[in-house]
Specification:
Length: 234
């Protein structure tokens, strides 16, 4: 009887152990199932991220190709502009050489001196300085006419084409003082607008079908307003 009770007790213990193991296995299986679901969700997220990265990579490659194309276009344009700039510099050098041979050293030195004075005031007081704003350039820069009249203008104006037009005579005094202060060379003549004395001119009527534009002189003639200055020659 005792042996039978012991056998039953052993069987019950075995059953309890097996029940516990089954319970633990069920718990592990449930946890593994949860882990599997999480892994599948993570895999889905990773797959989406890979697709996003792939699309971004394709976009960046397209942008790279476009930038490379733009770069080549800009390089060609830069080369063309540099070539044109060199041609313009050569043309400017030839023009300045011809100008120096025609006008003389004094006038050209005066042109350089006035430009330097304007830049001095620009650096000192900024681009809104009254001298910078009040200096309008040389007379030749302010005349605009058809090429047909170039010779007439040159003969009529002569060296006065290189006179400097300024807003008023007060600016002239300050510019002259700056020229003398720096011992700048050249021959300089000013035309202050507030000192210009002009008279109306009338022209006979003609049967010319259309008018020829001539800007800079207009229908009035300047009769006086010259302020000459001879700076230090070098």
């Amino acid at each position: 009887m005792k042996s039978l009770s012991k056998a039953i007790k052993d069987k019950e213990n075995t059953i309890n152990k097996l029940t516990e193991e089954i319970k633990r296995d069920d718990e592990r299986r449930e946890k593994l199932q949860q882990d599997l679901e999480v892994a599948e969700e993570n895999m889905t997220c990773v797959r989406k991220e890979l697709e996003t990265v792939s699309e971004e990579q394709r976009r960046l490659r397209r942008e790279k190709d476009e930038i490379q194309t733009d770069r080549q276009t800009v390089y060609r344009e830069e080369t063309r502009i540099a070539h044109e700039l060199n041609n313009l510099r050569d043309e400017l050098a030839r023009t300045e050489h011809n100008l120096r041979s025609i006008t003389g050293k004094g006038i050209l030195n005066g042109l350089d001196s006035v430009r330097k004075v304007v830049e001095i005031f620009r650096d000192r007081y900024g681009p809104d300085c009254d001298i910078v704003q009040g200096y309008h350039g040389t007379l030749i820069e302010l005349i605009d006419c058809p090429e047909t009249f170039y010779t007439s203008v040159e003969v009529t104006a002569g060296s006065r084409l290189f006179y400097h037009v300024v807003q008023n005579d007060k600016l002239v005094i300050r510019m002259i003082a700056e020229i003398n202060k720096h011992n700048l060379p050249g021959e300089v003549n000013f035309l202050p607008i507030n000192r210009l004395c002009v008279q109306e001119s009338s022209y006979p009527e003609t049967n010319v079908p259309e008018e020829i534009p001539f800007h800079g002189v207009g229908s009035r003639e300047v009769t006086s307003a010259l302020i000459p200055v001879t700076a230090h020659e070098t």
